[in-house]
Amino acid sequence: MKYVELNNKLKMPMLGYGVFRVEDGNVCISAVKAALEAGYRSIDTATIYGNEKSVGVAIKESGVPREEIFLTTKVWNEVQRSGNVEDAFNKSLEDLQVDYVDLYLIHWPVKEKYVDTWLELEKIYKSGKAKSIGVSNFHKHHLEDIKKVWSVVPVVNQVELHPNLTQEGLQEFCTEHNIILESWSPLAASKNDLLESETLISIGKKYNKTSAQVILRWNIDRGIITIPKSITPSRIKENFNIFDFELTKEEVVTINSMNTNERVGSDPDNFNF
Known about the structure:
This protein is of the alpha/beta class. About 40% of the residues lie in helices and about 15% in strands.
């Protein structure tokens, strides 16, 4: 496992396991336990995923000490609109059966709310119940808005990022402010043709790796945290097996050139949830 040091000196695994759209209950419990058994030490969930309780059970049953696991969850949009951020955070702690989370994120930049929400996250951070705080799905201008008020700099900005949406401009801005980019949907899950790319297949053959492994390694070689999701134990292990090779700078540039600015999810400036 490779780790990155966040701007608050906390170390975060560069590869994590995401549970977006992982069915609550036994499916989620088994998948998280399989990920921890495979060697993952970062688990990414969110209130809106509806599976925080299952993640908590899996962590308890895994036998992996809590302090070895980097646990992320997120505050949902309706909570931002209602202003009950602290209550929602405490409910997440209860559902996850933990005393703290390692990272708490604003899930989406809800118009006219995300600046106030950031100030609420700063209070939670200063309480010690969240070891670090950050944002998700923030464009540069959203970050500039909270920069006007922040006393705590976000440690990460978790965004959609894959070879068809390389986010190089956003990464440059984040790097200037010591914010690490984190990639959700790194394999562009609903665009299965990405994994059939001749470019990725060709690079993969050189290292005896799959297209998916090449993409995940491309994230890491760019200094980007990545959180692939799968519920298949063999795929969970395959996604983890990316630390025995490294892409060349030329290969990273080649994959960057696949950018089309094409999203599989919503644009953070235009979402209706």
